[in-house]
Every structure is written in C-alpha cells, then in structure tokens.
Specification:
about 550 residues, alpha/beta, Alkaline Phosphatase, subunit A, 2,3-Bisphosphoglycerate-independent phosphoglycerate mutase, substrate-binding domain, 7-stranded mixed beta sheet, 17 helices, binds 2-phosphoglyceric acid, binds manganese (II) ion, manganese, metal-binding, BPG-indep_PGM_N, EC 5.4.2.12, glycolysis
Length: about 550
C-alpha cells in the first residue's frame, strides 16, 4: 500500500475465475441500425456477427457510443475513436476535448492560462497562426470554437492573424468546406474592419495535408509544412473560397483530399508563411492527427522530413496531445486527466496483455485505450503489435485492408497462451465507410466479419472468452436521412452520401467456452455505454472493478 493508501490491487470477483484468455475485439465504425440498402453491415455477408446476435440474446446487447455517454458536449455529438477507446479503456466517462474547450472559452479561462500567455508574447510584433480542421463535425475541432478563439485573440490585442485551414468532408458532408470557408471569411472581414490584419493563408484536405496519424505517411505532414510554414504549394490563389471551389472542380478533389494551396497577394507573394517571432496554435482538440505536426513545430531535432527552415515560434496546442511525451509543452486547455485505466490496473494485477491493429488504428487500442499515453505500463507484461497499413491510397481501393493479417497475429497471440488479454481494432467498417464508397464498405464489413471469426475460433481452441464490440457507428448508415429515416435527397434529387460516424448504439457480444455458466447481461443497466465495458472485461478476468468505474454490464445467475 502506498503512503496514500492507494493500491492497484483489484479484489477477486466472487464468482468468476481467473486465468481465462479474454479477447476484446473492437470493430471500428460498426453501429447497429435498421437493415436497408445503405446499411452496409446489413447488406454485407456477416455470418459471424449475425450468429453472435442470434445465438445467445442474453449475451448480446447494445451500448451507447455517442454524446454524453462518451464525454461529448451534447446528444447530437456523434461518437469517435478517441472518445470511444478512451471510454472503453478508462471505464469512466471523462469530459472530452470538445467539452473542455467549450467550457474554457465560455468562462474566458482559456485567456488566463499559461499557454495563452505564452502565445500572447508574440502578438505585438509577430503573427498568430491558427492551424486546424475547418468543420463543425466536433470530432477533431469545431468551427464555432475557432470563431470564438479568433474573436478572443483580437480582443487580447493580436494584431496580425493567419488561418491555415484543413478541409473536412469526412465528419461532415463532402462539399461543405465551401460554406465553412465563407463563414470564416466573413468573420475575418469583421476583424479587419476592427483593424486586425486577419486572413486565411493556406489550405488543403485533411487526409492529404497535415492530419496524418501514427506515422502512416509523413508526406501528408510535409505538404502541410510547405504550405503553412514555407508558403509553398502547387496551387496559389487570391481567395480561399475560390481555391476550394476550383480545386474541387480541377483536379476534382474531395474536401478530404484537396491538394495544398497558399493564398498570395497582388504580387503573388504568400500572405502568411510562418517566421521567427510568430505564434502558432493548432486548434484541433483531438490528439491523434495533431501529434505529428506538433513534433515538426516543437522539436529542434526532427528528422522525419526536411523542414528547410525551423522558425523560432511560440507553439501551443489547443490541448496537450500526448501526456507521456508532454507534447506540445504549451497548450491552451488542459486535456482530460485520464488515470487508473483498466489496462494499468490489469497489468498491475499480472494480466499479460497483447494489443494489435494496423497503423491507421494502432494508437486506438494502445494510446487512446491507455488514456492518451504512448508506451507500455509494463513492457514485461505487455506487447503491442502494429501491422503496417497501406499508405497514400483511399481505403475503398483496398477495403479488406489488413484485417486478415491482424486476425492471424491475434490468433497466434491467443494460441501462444502467453497472454491473458488480447485486444484488437478491426478498422475496415470505419476507414472504408469514410470514403463514402458503399460497394467497398460492404466488402470491408465482410472482411472484418471473417477476421472476427478467425479470432473467435482461436478463443474456442484455448477455452477462452470473447468480447466483441465497436467504438461508434459508421458503416451501418451511409446516407443523410430526414427525421423519418428516409434518405434526404439534395436539390438535384440525389442521395447525399454520409462519410461520417453516426449517433447509433453499438453491439456488444460476450461468449466463448471459458465463459462461466450463468453469465448474462444485466437488465438494470439500460443506458450502459462504452465506459461500462471496462468493468465487464475486468470481471471476465476474474476481478471486481474499482468502485468509481461505470458498473459492469454482466451478472452471474445461478442456474
Ligand atoms: O479518421 C478520423 O480521424 C476520425 C474521423 O474524423 O475517425 P475515427 O474517430 O474513427 O478515428
Ligand atoms: Mn473509430
Ligand atoms: Mn472514423
């Protein structure tokens, strides 16, 4: 017992045994919705997931994966991987980035913090650069927060402001970028009327410029560096609205994949490169797609690509993106202080843990699962395996992705009997769902289902237990709908493809030969969400969960 009397020791579960291999499978982007032609999960051939649902109704249920159940501001907020895997791993509901920034802006506290004071030192003689996703999707950023921050900075005497936009079309409808740019331009014009030299300086599509993650493709970050810092890009425009409209026409790029552009003045000179003495804020609140650009902006020694020059700036993230690396060292809003996650408890109680996914989701089952921490809790007891993802493609061209390789690695880990917990993320439903390609997403869902089967067969062989769930919806609904659930047609009478996540609940199924008889889902946790899964998994490892965890979803009834 430490001096504070705290101990990671978990009490034994009164009825459930220890020592069973527990496989926790997270199907990314796999929600539950009424079957119809735009529900790729219902269209796809998914015999394994179907059997879990039909096989044992007392061991299959739905859980919430959006809104306040995962720490988001309102019930209109769709779920996402960050908040989903945070909740799955932490077993509690933490107010997440979107909400923390809302509170800090509303109270004005954002302007009193160390991070803001640090960037304010550059307001007199330098330029304030804001880099981030221009969208009201609320997954990585939110437009109204950017507009409030712009207003606040001008009131705090920022004299020169440059905004470097990343267009979305993934969490929001493709094409919505034009409207967001117009809204931003209107706000910047108001600032200019008040004597602030405020302009958009560069732009690009989030999947092609800046917002890569888990080091899948540094070229994405490099293209952004050139446009944002050096003022160099293949496309130059006088206006950002014109840039987005023209680039969507030629080279017919979607918002997600818009090529990088810079805004130039009447002499063709870029209006907003980043120079010594400037301040930079990356205004996304979500970590995974900011940590790579954060390294390039913060680290003196950086070798992932040639930066050409490294400006001496005051850089702050909207939040601190990595609590282990303390990256960035300055930030405007403190991140959720997620501690005592289930992974940390279980390792302290001797549970040997294996985690696996392919690059594009690798950090979900490690970094996010462990409460926004990179690295191991105990490298003696843990092993994280990353299968390299394809890079530089849109995943509808390879919808099977690396599902088979992930399943094979996970099967081998289970059969090795070296691990007590084996957790995995199967990205297909989400990564292909985000392309909006319905046919490819159907193939993706089938591939994910086949991977689940391989993992469950291995659990069968070792007498283990499985928990199959998801982090939020995506593939189960691929069109925008009206209130009655009918597809909402656009002005030309066409369906509007939904590339984003959904508000749908997600399934959770438990089973396997190692599951003690009498285990079933309780009926008294009707509003259970992803945060309840951690206590459930702890029970299946033979432990009681800490008292402050969301309650377990299972009970053991005597037959
Ligand atoms: O791709 C991403 O960054 C988000 C959507 O913006 O998806 P997920 O939360 O599933 O990672
Ligand atoms: Mn996800
Ligand atoms: Mn997603």
């Amino acid at each position: 017992m430490g001096s504070s009397g705290f101990s990671f020791k978990l009490a034994d579960h009164p009825k459930l045994p220890k020592g069973k291999t527990v496989a926790v499978v997270v199907l990314d982007g796999w929600g539950e919705a009424k079957p119809d032609q735009y529900n790729c999960i219902s269209v796809a051939d998914t015999p394994t997931m179907d059997s879990l649902k039909q096989g044992a109704p007392e061991r299959w249920r739905l859980v919430k994966a959006h809104g306040t159940a995962v720490g988001l501001p309102t019930e209109d907020d769709m779920g996402n991987s960050e908040v989903g895997h945070n909740a799955l791993g932490a077993g509690r509901i933490y107010a997440q980035g979107a909400k923390l920034v809302d509170l800090a802006l509303a109270s004005g506290k954002i302007y009193e913090g160390e991070g803001f004071k640090y960037i304010k030192e550059c307001f007199e003689n330098g330029t304030l650069h804001l880099i981030g996703l221009l969208s009201d999707g609320g997954v990585h950023s939110r437009l109204d927060q950017l507009l409030l921050l712009l207003k606040g900075c001008s009131e705090q005497n920022a004299k020169r402001i440059r905004v470097h936009i990343l267009t979305d079309g993934r969490d929001v409808l493709d094409g919505s970028s034009v409207g967001f740019v117009e809204t931003l331009e209107n706000e910047l014009a108001k600032l200019r009327e008040r004597g602030v030299d405020a302009q958009i300086a560069s732009g690009g599509g989030r999947m092609y410029v800046t917002m890569d993650r888990y080091e899948n493709d540094w070229d994405v970050v490099k293209r952004g560096w050139y446009a944002q810092v050096l003022g160099e890009a293949p496309y130059k425009f006088r206006s950002a609205v014109e840039a987005v409209k023209k680039l969507r026409e030629e080279p017919k790029a979607s918002d997600q994949y818009l090529p990088p552009f810079v805004i130039v003045d009447e002499n063709g000179k870029p209006v907003g490169p980043i120079f010594d003495g400037d301040a930079v804020v990356t205004f996304n609140f979500r970590a995974d797609r900011m940590t790579m650009i954060a390294q390039a902006l913060e680290y003196e020694s950086f070798d992932k690509f040639d930066r050409v020059r490294f400006p001496k700036i005051h850089y702050a993230g909207m939040l601190q993106y990595d609590g282990e690396l303390k990256l960035p060292s300055h930030y405007l809003v403190s991140p959720p202080e997620i501690e005592r996650t289930s992974g940390e408890y279980l390792v302290h109680n001797g549970v040997r843990t294996f985690a696996c996914s392919e690059t594009v989701k690798f950090g979900h089952v490690t970094f996010f699962w462990n409460g926004n921490r990179s690295g191991y809790f105990n490298s003696e007891l843990e092993e994280y395996i990353e299968i390299p993802s394809d890079s530089g493609i849109t995943f509808n061209v390879q919808p099977k992705m690396k599902a088979l390789e992930i399943a094979e690695k996970t099967r081998d880990a289970i059969l090795s009997q070296k691990f007590d917990q084996v957790r995995v993320n199967l990205p297909n439903g989400d990564m292909v769902g985000h392309t909006g390609d319905i046919g490819a997403t159907v193939v993706a869902c089938k591939a994910a289902d086949e991977a689940v089967k391989m993992i469950l067969d291995a659990i069968e062989q070792v007498g283990g237990i499985y928990v199959v769930t998801a982090d939020h919806g995506n593939a189960e609904d691929m069109v925008k709908r009206n209130k009655t659930g009918q597809p909402l047609l656009d002005k030309n009478g066409n369906i509007q493809i939904l590339t984003s996540h959904t508000l749908q609940p997600v399934p959770i199924a438990i089973g396997g030969p190692g599951l003690a008889p009498g285990v079933q889902f309780r009926k008294d946790v009707p509003n259970g969400g992803l945060a309840n899964v951690a206590a459930t998994v702890m029970n299946l490892h033979g432990f009681e969960a800490p008292s402050d965890y969301e309650p377990s979803l299972i009970e053991v009834v005597d037959n």
